[in-house]
Amino acid sequence: MAEYRKECDLLGERDVPADALHGIHTERAIENFPLAGRPVHPALVHAYGTVKLACARTNHELGRWDDEKFRAIEAACMEMMEGMLDRHVVVDALQGGAGTSTNMNVNEVLANRALQILGRPLGDYAALDPVDDLNLHQSTNDTYPTALRVAAIGLLRRLEREATALLEEFQKREKEMAGIVKVGRTQLQDAVLTTLGREMSAYAEAFARDRWRIYKCEERLRVVNLGGTAIGTGLAAPRTYIFRAIDHLRDITGLGLARAENLVEATQNTDAFVEVSGILKALASNLLKIATDLRLLSSGPEGGIGELRLPPRQAGSSIMPGKVNPVIPEAVSQAAMVVMANDQTITIACSMGNLELNTFLPVIADALLGSLTLLARACLIFRTLCVAGLAADAERCRRHVESATASVTALVEGIGYEAATRVAGEAQAMGKTVRQVVIDRGLLTGPQFDALVSSEAVTRLGSPPKKDNT
After folding, report:
1. Helices (DSSP H) in 187-232: which residue ranges?
2. What is the pLDDT of residue 470?
3. Active-site residue among 317, 318, 333, 351?
4. pTM summary value
């Protein structure tokens, strides 16, 4: 038979499992918010541990607890920072109350873990209380957004590393495929010649911009409102505490954090999260575009373009033998779509703040941290399971170059526009390759044709200056 302990709050008494580190507020939140079906993001929990540790060290310096009590609280906070208490933070990711349920779940877990360390029974709040001790000089309204910013910075740094590795992988493919001439396409139609290396370089450059944007947008998250308590006025917090808490948080995290000059404004407004989400959406759009390109270029492989071969990852069909699908680009595309949808959620939620507080921080946190995690994973699998194993079908590219009317544009310099136009028409009408037609008509020799469609010729910037024969 399950055992329980009694806890009380404003609304009355509730039974709490006797061995639970959480308390009555968490129990009510579990009952009230069966929404997402998943707990708050682990990065937010770990960041909350750093915030509570900074606050605890500041309060200890102000003489609020004896050393024994402080050491127990400090140890509990450090365990939360390190992920050791994740399973005890059980409130739903989506919740009313601007994150109060998350803050109270954290307070209750830390209080009860500290009680364990002191050798006292769980729920002995006369000795150490979730609110009076763990929430001392704090509010959900300053600790939650501060923890969110700390969590987001950590995940941004991971994402930057993954985006950098992805662009470097495309740079490797650029060098490997620099000499492979292929048909360039606009509006999905043959256009002019290029190289696979040039295509890979364009992908690398796009991700280089993403990496830079991600690096720079960390600055938008470094200003926090810790110490502002309820609405940014610092109500019920000593001035010394307000100034010292951020110093401790900076030391604990190693991040370049700063207290907002206008704590009231920083408590009200959440537009920085919209800005960061927009940067994430830009990366998602590049991932979706480039993943789609790889699917197109590898299509077929016999009945499609087939200029690239993707690493085979799994059997593609339960009914079509031998079929292998581009599952990694497909998965990356879906991740990108979710990030774009999250951006819309964040934009709406940040716009819905009223007066002195944004009530919808939980959904902002869930969407933002979810996007950061999803993008880092998408970049990782795209790089390791797809781009690292990309291979060119050089022979297929060569056949396309010789057959496609796109190669005619490269011949204008050698045979003139009108002759090139006639060659294009004849090749289409006779079902011959462009190479065959120009050789048969004596317009160019085979080596001359090959020189005009070489990788050097099709990738140089503009036409070389004509020799002066005068």
Report:
1. 196-217
2. 46
3. 317
4. 0.92
